[in-house]
Each structure stands twice: as C-alpha cells, then as structure tokens.
Specification:
Length: about 140
C-alpha cells in the first residue's frame, strides 16, 4: 500500500492560511448579509407607524430576534481585530433599542473599515471585496 505524499511544510502552512482566510471571509460575509436583512426588516416595521405619536419611541424587536442578531454580531466580532469589535457591539445595542438606522450606521462604519484597512483588504478575495461594497450600498439605504 502506498503512503500518501504530503506537501512540504511551507506549502501546507500556506494552504492552512488560505483556508483560514476563506473561513473568516465566509463568516463575515454571511453574518453581515443576514444582519443587514434583519435591519431592513426592522426598518420596514419601524416605518409603518402611521397611527403612532410623532415623538413615540420605536418598539424594540422581540427577544428571539435580538438573540439571533446578537449571534450574528458575536460571530462577526470573533473574526475582527480587537479595535473593531466595539462596532458590532454598538450595532447590537441600538438594534435592541429598536433603532435599525443607527444599528446599520455602525455596521456601515465596520464595512468601510474592512475595505480601508490593509490587513483586511489583503485578506479578502476580490469577490468578497465586491460583496462588501454591496453591503455598503445596502446599509446606506437604511
């Protein structure tokens, strides 16, 4: 029986880094996409306030929705450098309070940082950067 030949250590290391980058990229893109859809839904509900008082505060989302959004923000935070983690936390805080526009503004700042900072620009594939630019457009609509 033949033994399988393994790639040299330097090649295996590069392949591992590539897989790690892909996982980070996929996690961030997937969680951002779901979070943006969640914010859009809350924004639509918030806009449907025809019979409420003009100074009334928005209704916060249901606890199950908050828990789901919190999972998305935590998953994104785990992939970020420590200095960027306050942005998903601030988004979660404002989502809990029922302010999708403010929650979205923190995610917009996060995506802009990801597109600006060299360590993230080099880590994302061209297709991922294009998807992040699409996220910017979606977040500006909130």
């Amino acid at each position: 029986m033949r033994s399988r030949r393994r790639a040299p250590p330097e090649r295996r290391s590069a392949e591992g880094e590539e897989r790690g980058r892909d996982m980070e990229e996929k996690t961030i893109l997937t969680e951002l996409g779901v979070a943006i859809d969640t914010l859009k839904t809350l924004a639509l509900v918030t806009l449907n306030v025809e019979e409420t008082h003009p100074l009334a505060l928005p209704e916060p989302p249901a606890s199950d929705k908050v828990a789901a959004y919190e999972r998305h923000m935590n998953a994104i935070s785990q992939e970020l450098a420590t200095r960027l983690r306050p942005l998903p936390a601030a988004s979660l805080r404002d989502y809990r309070a029922g302010f999708p526009d403010r929650a979205g503004s923190y995610l917009l700042e996060l995506v802009n940082q990801l597109l600006r900072e060299p360590e993230y620009v080099s880590a994302f594939s061209p297709a991922a950067r294009k998807r992040l630019q699409g996220c910017v457009m979606d977040l500006r609509e909130l």
